Amino acid sequence: MYPVIADFGFFKINSFGLMMALAFFAASWLVTRELDRRGLEPSHMEGYPLTAMIAGLIGSRLYWVFEHLDKFERAPFATLFGGAGFTWYGGAALGAFAVLFLAHRRNQPLWSVCDAFAPGLAAAYAIGRIGCQLAGDGDYGIPSDVPWAMAYPDAVVPTTERVHPTPVYEMVAMGVATWILWRFRDRSWAEGGALFGLYLILSGVERFLVEFVRTNSVWMLGMTAAQVTSIAAVIAGAWVMRAQPGNQPPPTRAKRRRRARPA
Predict the structure, then answer these.
(1) For residue 126, which of 87, 167, 85 has the smallest C-alpha distance?
(2) pTM of the model
(3) 27 Cβ contact list (under 8 Å, min separation 6)
(4) Measured between alpha carbons, how far is 32 from 41 in angstroms, rounded to an integer?
(5) Residues 14 and 6 sit within 8 Å (Cβ to Cβ)
(6) How many domains are contained in the chain?
(7) Domain span at residue 49?
(8) E runs forming strands in 164-254
């Protein structure tokens, strides 16, 4: 593991922070390209990436604290402001709220903004997990004897047991999700929130499955908090893809006859 890439004495370059910066710039580039392609002037979006990043960091930390209230009770300051401990769903929720609030204030079409952000969000997650793997911040999984299991002896949260490298699983899964979203972004159906709905489904399924080999404790109904949130994300994504007017199936003949029947 490489929690610190370079140490200049008075200044350190942490691998996690470096990957977060790269995730931010990669997502900003993808989002800006999509905004331009969708006819939403990128100049109107000045401040959005930075707002999303700040709100995302706050939200991801608060969600992680919610998942680890025992640590917060023992050391509240260190839990809130320590170098490790971020949960993607909290960041995505608060970041999305901040972005949509600004989009509303600037009279931007909200669903188009959401669609434009979808590939960038997936890419940011994948790159962020590279940071988790390099830092070994405790996001790894349960002990395992699979051939690719590994130990994290020099990590921020060290372990000498061979465990599931769940950051690698998520990096690969969300890398594939990024490719899918980018590949289908210009399809006729990927409008009106449908692409964002697909992002919610892909990210929800990925996180739900990987939680089975994570170390997170059960929260309710035999599932972790992340799994419950994942189910909500999948349901929301399916509803968005189905509910948007442009994504409705054409009416059947019977329905067309009923609509044509005079009152």
Answers:
(1) 167
(2) 0.79
(3) 49, 120, 121, 123, 124
(4) 9
(5) no
(6) 1
(7) 4-260
(8) none
**Which residues have C-beta within 8 Å of that of residue 193, sequence separation ≥ 6?**
111, 114, 115, 240, 241, 244
* Beta-ladder partners of 7: 12
Strands, E assignment, the chain: 4-7, 12-14, 150-152, 159-163
User: What type of residue sits at position 25?
Assistant: F
253, two tokens = 């003949």
Q: How does pLDDT run along the chain (263 residues), one tens digit per residue?
A: 677 777 777 677 778 778 888 888 898 889 888 988 888 766 666 666 677 777 877 877 777 777 667 776 776 766 566 555 566 667 767 777 887 787 777 788 888 888 998 999 899 899 989 988 998 888 899 999 999 999 999 888 899 999 999 999 999 999 999 999 999 999 988 888 999 999 999 999 999 999 999 988 888 889 998 899 899 999 999 999 987 655 544 444 544 455 545 54
Q: What sign results for the dihedral spanned by CA atoms 79, 143, 133, 171?
A: negative
Pseudo-torsion of CA 228, 230, 234, 237, nearest 10°? Answer: 120
Which residues does 256 contact at the CB level (< 8 Å), separation at least 6?
A: none
- State both tokens at 145: 């004897």
CB-CB contact of 18 with 29 (8 Å) = no
Scanning the structure block, which residue is given the tokens 């909500």?
232
Q: Name 74's Cβ contacts closer than 8 Å, sequence gap at least 6.
A: none
Geometric angle at alpha carbon 147, from 146 and 151, rounded to 5°: 80
Which residue matches tokens 């002037």?
Answer: 41
